[in-house]
Amino acid sequence: MADGFRKPIKMRVDVLALFPEILAPALKTGILKRVQDADKLIVNLHNLRDWATDKHKSVDDYPYGGGAGMILKPEPIFAAIAALNPETNAHVIYLTPQGIPLTQGVVESLSLESHLILLCGRYKGVDERVRHRLVTTEVSIGDYVLSGGEIAALVLIDAIGRVLPGALGDYESAHVDSFSHELLDHPHYTRPVEFADSGVPEVLLSGHHENIEKWRYAEALKRTAKCRPDLLQKLELSEEDVEILKAAGLME
Ligand code: ADE
């Protein structure tokens, strides 16, 4: 992975998949469209079948040793990655439930790379030699099994795209939102001030920025304690944090 906090001028992402068309509509929308229009991100979609060598364009085969399900053959994947990465400097990511869990930290680290190749599995996955020889990192988007890696690749591109410089208009804003400071996000309100028999917390109407920041921090802390106690356990809590949680009955 790239070292330091260097922001790439432009990121290139090559997606290698059996159904790359799954990603196309999302890439034409919203922030992902904006970062591509601004030339910060180039995404190329490739069909693995284009590198199949036999007349049936086959990309899968039966597993040695028997068993259910097909395996993606190594030859088309090796040929594709050699073509897409002749200088062998790309970071090759295989999307699989066996990968490291995708977190905001992983997203931010990968956002510093200049060339990613996202390899999407299908069926029972890829021949093991692909993993050993070609793949730099395996990434999972959660503990469940999707029908293929395409949606996982899109999740990864979306998460990376929005932290690239220029994506949100204000680069910093992506780095202060939920998870960037390891807490869940605080509650948000907009107009009207009264709605469904419920009002907006007084502090948010006060114009007192310091109090507003304190309130937001306390709410984020409490929400994290309630919804994701596992995240909180990884943090070093200050005395003030402990007081906030005790007062809310979220800590003994
Ligand atoms: N392919 C299938 N399931 C997946 C998952 N949970 N994460 C990443 N890639 C996958």
Structure description:
- This protein is of the alpha/beta class and 252 residues long.
- It is built from 11 helices and 9 strands.
- The strands form 3 sheets. It has a 5-stranded parallel beta sheet with strand order 2-1-6-5-7, sandwiched between helices. A two-stranded antiparallel ribbon has the order 3-4.
- α4 (104-110) links the parallel β5 and β6.
- Adenine is lined by residues 95-97, 121, 140-142, 144-146, 149, 152.
Helix content: 25-40%
Give the strand tally: 9
**Average pLDDT number:** 93
Lateral arrangement of strands in the main beta sheet: 2-1-6-5-7
Number of helical stretches of at least 4 residues:
11
Beta-strand fraction estimate: 15-25%
Structural class call reads: alpha/beta
Rg (C-alpha, Å): 22 Å
Largest sheet: 5 strands, parallel
List the helices and strands and how they pair.
Layout: E1 11-17, H1 24-27, H2 30-37, E2 41-47, E3 60-61, E4 71-72, H3 74-84, E5 91-101, H4 104-110, E6 115-120, H5 128-133, E7 137-140, H6 150-161, H7 171-175, E8 194-195, E9 198-199, H8 202-205, H9 209-227, H10 229-233, H11 239-247
Parallel strand pairs: 1-2, 1-6, 5-6, 5-7
Antiparallel strand pairs: 3-4, 8-9
This protein binds adenine.
Which labels suit this protein?
five-stranded parallel sheet, single chain, 17% strand, alpha/beta, two-stranded antiparallel sheet, 11 helices, binds adenine
In short:
The chain is of the alpha/beta class. It has helices at 24-27, 30-37, 74-84, 104-110, 128-133, 150-161, 171-175, 202-205, 209-227, 229-233, 239-247; strands spanning 11-17, 41-47, 60-61, 71-72, 91-101, 115-120, 137-140, 194-195, 198-199.
